[in-house]
Write a structure and sequence with these properties.
Length: 71
């Protein structure tokens, strides 16, 4: 299944549907030295991660914690 992590509403929807206990973030914009798409790097590497964190926080309860891994 495809998920664009830069779209907060899509991330929240899929996290709520799947209800995972672990999220592994392998999404990354790796051409960080490229001058043409610097905004794309920020969008994926920063905003995308923030969306995953926000979505995982929104479904957490006192009894359950979603673990988010990235690398």
């Amino acid at each position: 299944q495809y998920l664009d992590i830069t779209k907060q509403s899509d991330v929240e929807k899929i996290i709520n549907e799947i209800n995972p206990s672990i999220i592994i973030n392998c999404a990354a914009y790796t051409d960080v030295d490229g001058r043409k798409e610097i905004n794309a790097g920020i969008k994926v590497n920063v905003a995308g991660l923030q969306n995953l964190i926000h979505a995982s926080d929104s479904v957490e309860s006192a009894e359950r914690e979603i673990k988010l891994y990235f690398g």
